[in-house]
Each structure stands twice: as C-alpha cells, then as structure tokens.
Specification:
alpha+beta, globular, four-stranded mixed sheet
C-alpha cells in the first residue's frame, strides 16, 4: 500500500489535479488515486471528506493532508530529493520556483478563456482579450529556460523534469486543444510533454470519461 493518496477531479478538466499527478507519475513516486467527479450534487460533500479547502487536488499523507497543487509539488520535492523535482543549482532552483509561482497566480486571461478540455479540438477558439499576451509570456519563459538550462530540442525547462514542467503541463494541453500560433520551440516543448507516457495515460483516461461539465465547454 502506498504512503500517498492523491485526490483529484475529472482528468479532462481538472488542470490543478494534473500537476501533482503528472509529477508523481513521471518520477515514479507510488500513490493511490481517488477521483471525485466535479460539478455533481455530491462533489462538495465528497471533497470535503478530504480537504478543508473544499478543492482538489489533495495529497493525503499518513494522518494529514496537503492541498493546493504547488504546495503538494514543493512537499514532494522536499521529501524526495532523489526525484529531482527542483534543479540542483541554487539560481536555477530559484527561477524554477519563480516561474512555477507565476503560473500558479497568473495568466488569468488564458485560464478563463481557454479552460482545459483535453478531449476537445477547438482551433481558433478562446482568443479573448489578454490571451495572446499570456501566450507570449509563457512561450518566452519556456524559450528562456530551455536556452539557459536545457539540453537540446527535446529538453524540459531545466534539463530534467521539475515542478515547473508539472505546473505548465495544463498550458500545453490547452495549446493542443485551441491551437493558437506559437513558435517552433514552443511546439517542440509541447510535443515532448504530450509524448510522455504519463501524459498519454492521463489523456487516454480523460478521453474515456463520461462526465461533461457544460461551463467548461466552449
């Protein structure tokens, strides 16, 4: 039995759930998964059994719980240094944390106008005010990090998978769905993330889910 239980929402829609799930799957940290469908009559009650905040994801560890994607990722990085979820170099580590926090608290235009919907194909949709500026900033972050710390065309943001790649993975899935114009480097990064075995497994599960949340559909 695993030390960890990760409580998540629908794989098709729950971008926050994807982040710690992907990090744990990529790094091989064993965990049990508990999926609670969102936007149902019982969602609030079921999530409330695990999270005082009433939201997913939640990482249950022994006799306590951690909620919020970034808090979970930081906890895992501290508890499992061998998983290399943070860069070893202090400056790279600080930048990794900075861009992860920027994703956590920013890019509201993109998040609200392009909700994550993995099984959909909506080219040209979602380009509301501010979205292009968010995309430009995100792809600039990717370009800068891979140039400074990457290892080539098929490189994570800091050379190996870190919490930053986990934080930006839902953006990758949004770009795959809405297909805005992005540069070749950003496309290569997106292709690498979607090509991960763990990401393929998540996407396959998302495609097979029966639930539809109308507010998340464009």
């Amino acid at each position: 039995m695993s030390d960890y239980t990760l409580v998540i929402g629908n794989k098709n829609y729950s971008s926050w759930s994807l982040r710690p799930w992907l990090a744990m799957a990529v790094t091989g940290l064993p965990f049990e998964e508990l999926l609670i469908p969102l936007d149902t009559a019982k969602t609030k009650e079921e999530i409330g059994k695990h999270s005082p905040a009433g939201r997913v994801p939640v990482l249950k560890v022994e006799d306590f719980a951690i909620w919020d994607s970034l808090a979970i990722l930081e906890f895992l990085a501290e508890r499992h240094p061998d998983a290399n979820l943070l860069p070893a170099d202090p400056r790279a580590r600080a930048l990794c944390r900075s861009i992860s926090a920027e994703m956590h608290s920013g890019f509201e235009a993109l998040r609200s106008s392009m909700p994550m919907n993995i099984r959909a194909s909506l080219p040209g949709k979602g380009m509301q005010e501010g979205v292009q500026e968010d995309i430009n900033r995100i792809t600039a972050i990717w370009r800068d990090c891979r140039k400074r710390f990457g290892t080539g065309e098929q490189s994570f943001l800091f050379g190996h998978f870190t919490i930053a790649d986990a934080m930006y993975a839902p953006v990758v899935m949004r770009l795959n769905t809405y297909k805005p114009e992005i540069g070749d480097g950003a496309r290569a990064y997106c292709a690498m993330i979607t090509g991960l075995d763990a990401m393929k497994a998540w996407s396959k599960a998302a495609a097979g889910e029966p639930w539809i949340i109308e507010s998340e559909e464009i």
